[in-house]
Design brief:
Layout: E1 3-5, E2 22-24, E3 31-32, H1 33-40, H2 47-55, E4 59-61, E5 64-65, E6 72-73, E7 78-81, E8 86-92, E9 98-103, H3 105-108, E10 110-120, E11 126-130, E12 135-137, E13 147-151, E14 156-161, E15 168-171, E16 180-187, E17 192-197, E18 200-205, E19 209-211
Antiparallel strand pairs: 1-2, 3-6, 4-5, 4-7, 7-8, 8-9, 10-11, 10-13, 11-12, 13-14, 15-16, 15-19, 16-17, 17-18
Length: 213
């Protein structure tokens, strides 16, 4: 199904519930580039304008041109609008909804992702499977549930952000999605972490956390 009813869109999409009856459904990621460009950034008035921009390679996602307006973006993906030389990052607001934040050129070349699995291949090569669906062979020392910083131009991992006490994290799923804090205590036996969020302490599943810089 290529579309869904507007009333059925995920709660983290920051678009009005009233409007056209149907909204395009992403074929990857969490929110389609059409919705980001037309309804959130408002750099296009309609779908026709979005398709035209994509056709002439004016829109990049993580430094790659895309052609399909149903291609989706997820947390920390970068969108670059070539003619204006402006770049934006998909973030989470404290209410758990996606928001789009303009970023400078240096930040546009990198992305933070979470390691969801780690495998040893033949020749003792280490493959890291990431939460955005990509995987990397890397010599960087890191473990499942750590985060890594990817450089798009170099096409490699340049830094590991370790899941540890006092690490800064964002909650990207669950009832506390969008909140940021620091790890006060790790409880791996319970697959949870205790976070300090402002003046509050909350327990969150480790699988719902991502370490950030």
């Amino acid at each position: 199904m290529k579309h869904m009813k507007r009333q059925m869109v995920p709660k983290n999409w920051p678009i009005p519930r009233k409007g056209t009856a149907f909204v395009v459904k992403p074929i990857s990621g969490e929110i389609p580039i059409l919705v980001v460009l037309r309804d959130i950034l408002k750099v296009a008035q309609n779908r026709k304008e979005v398709k035209k921009a994509l056709h002439v390679n004016n829109i990049l996602i993580n430094n790659k041109a895309v052609k399909d307006d149903k291609i989706g973006v997820s947390l920390f993906d970068t969108i670059t609008i070539v003619p204006s030389k402006k770049s934006y990052r998909i973030e989470l607001a404290q209410n758990g909804k996606f928001r789009v934040e303009e970023i400078d050129e240096k930040k546009a070349g990198e992305k933070i992702v979470k390691i969801v699995d780690k495998k040893t291949l033949k020749g003792k090569k280490i493959q890291l499977n990431l939460n955005d669906g990509n995987n990397f062979l890397s010599d960087v020392k890191c473990n499942t549930n750590d985060s890594v910083v990817i450089n798009f131009k170099a096409k490699k991992i340049i830094k590991c952000l370790e899941l540890k006490e006092k690490a800064n994290v964002i909650i990207f799923a669950g009832k506390h999605a969008g909140k940021k804090g620091a790890i006060d205590k790790l409880m791996p036996e319970r697959k949870m972490a205790k976070l300090k969020v402002g003046e509050d302490s909350i327990n969150v599943l480790i699988k719902q956390l991502m370490v950030v810089e």
